[in-house]
Write a structure and sequence with these properties.
Layout (H helix, E strand, L loop, with lengths): L1 H6 L1 H12 L3 H8 L6 H9 L5 H19 L4 H21 L14 E4 L3 E7 L6 E5 L7 E2 L6 E2 L18 E15 H8 L2 E7 L2 E7 L5 E6 L11 E5 L6 E2 L2 E3 L4 E3 L1 E3 L5 E7 L9 E15 L3
Parallel strand pairs: 6-9
Antiparallel strand pairs: 1-16, 2-16, 3-15, 4-5, 6-11, 6-14, 6-16, 7-8, 7-15, 9-10, 12-13
Helix pairs in contact: 2-5, 2-6, 4-5
Length: 300
């Protein structure tokens, strides 16, 4: 029986490729074509109002059904076989260099940009225990988390609205990282060992972890050697593009899928300070969401 399947494998692949262009819901709908009678398929193909893609799928299904009938293969089993081949192909891709990132355009017309979303807050040297919310104060507005006000500029943030992106933007979140001003080793270790981070989309916490687990970048003040007392700034980081991976494994597709921030959906990062900090001086702390920003609508 498997030999019979393979004999019409090219048709299965054609159908499978067509199926792969559709969403899961659309794929389930057109999958019903495989178990339709011939006259119903003819009706779809002849239907003036049917979309070109739907007609194309119907033709592919009919071609497979004709060959399957000649070999006595039930259409339902043939359709399941096509889906198994599709899933196996995806899983093979997941294990190799061509692994899919699991990204699908949120809607027609939006253009993807490899542009992060970032936000900065200034903490006082002895910032008290409590929560500090990031991505809540956009550019041009004043923030006084540390007790002394700062006016957000492009240096501090690229947010233009409170906890959300402007219309029509969406964002697919791949990862999270943070950075801070030039600091001593003691100051950096102080904040890393006293804080936790929660990443929210809407009211759902998608990640909760200690700050020390997040990739970071900072310019550290440290003694050059033990003789001359020089204190140059040494870049201390876990990699120029290192980030904590926030994607989740999708069992159906076999790929790592990003967390999507939908149209005008709230999101934030909460820095939870467990006990009062002792950093020696006020410091700017910046959190960055890495991913794909879906932005301007394509013209024409």
């Amino acid at each position: 029986m498997l030999e019979d399947y393979d004999e019409i494998g090219s048709d299965i692949e054609d159908y499978d490729d067509l199926l792969g262009d559709l969403s899961d819901d659309e794929a389930e709908d057109v999958g019903a074509f495989m178990v339709m009678d011939g006259y119903e398929l003819d009706g779809i193909i002849d239907d003036v109002g049917a979309s070109p893609r739907k007609k194309k799928l119907a033709r592919a299904a009919k071609r497979i059904k004709i060959k399957a009938k000649r070999r006595g293969i039930p259409s339902k089993r043939l359709y399941r076989r096509a889906k198994q081949k599709k899933r196996a192909k995806r899983m093979k891709s997941f294990g190799g260099k061509s692994m899919s990132c699991g990204v699908q355009a949120p809607c027609a017309g939006l253009l993807p940009k490899n542009e992060p979303v970032y936000d900065t807050e200034r903490l006082s040297a002895t910032q008290a225990a409590g929560d500090v919310t990031f991505f809540a104060i956009p550019e041009g507005q004043s923030s006084s988390v540390s007790g002394s006000a700062i006016t957000k500029s492009k240096y501090h943030t690229n947010m233009t609205a409170v906890k959300m992106l402007p219309v029509p933007q969406r964002f697919d979140v791949f990862g999270l990282s943070w950075c801070m001003d030039t600091a001593t080793v003691a100051a950096l270790n102080d904040i890393r060992n006293k804080c936790a981070v929660i990443f929210y989309i809407g009211n759902t916490p998608y990640a909760t972890l200690r700050l020390s687990l997040l990739p970071f970048y900072s310019s550290i003040q440290a003694a050059y050697d033990g003789t001359n007392g020089a204190v140059p700034n040494i870049a201390w980081c876990t990699g120029p593009k290192a980030e904590y991976d926030l994607r989740t494994f999708d069992l159906d597709s076999g790929v790592l899928a990003p967390q999507r921030i939908a149209l005008q959906e709230n999101f934030s990062v909460i820095l939870k300070i467990d006990s009062a900090l002792n950093m020696g001086a006020a410091k700017d702390i910046c959190f960055t969401l890495h991913g794909i920003k879906w932005t301007e609508i394509r013209q024409g």
